[in-house]
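Figure 2 data, in text form.
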Amino acid sequence: AADGAEGGGRPADGGGGGHGDDDRVDAVVKYSDLFAATSGDADRRLRTILRMLDEFDVAGTTERFDETSALLMHTLKWDAAIAARTEYEAPTCAISFVGNRLPWYCIDRRKEAPPYSTERRRIRARICPDMEACARLVRSVAAADHALYARAQQRLKDDIAAAGAPFQATMQAFHEYKRRNATYWGLRKCSWVHRPRGPRT
């Protein structure tokens, strides 16, 4: 999705000068020539991608990972517990730099930090100040990816509906197993200690 892009906060129009910017724009144009909807054989590529997706017995998306996993277990007639995974919520960003504050792309989870929603808006604003412009750019470059995602999303919805009550029972068993057996681990902040090397032997 467009809001999941990583970057240094450059506006979507790619403004700026210098040879590096020209190279970056050229790379985007070349990629667009290969995969965007305006490419001469983009329709053929898209049909191939969607046909490949339709060959799979189960298709899903990462944001509905639990349902996708449970549907896989249901389709294979396996125990739902096999797919149940451990979850944890990190109290702070796992990436830190010695002697510095958290990187700008980390959500500050300390009690004195701004609310989560404020932190989320701050990060999104730096990555992409104009979400609509970013979304248009991503779709122009990765039209096939968007079509693939839409097909997988619809497949998951349709397959869950077709599976009916038996799948819902699998889903309930999946969540119940996680509730009773999954171990939740809290992350501890680590400190970096410099240990000078001795003479090589």
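Caption note: Residues 15-181 form one domain.
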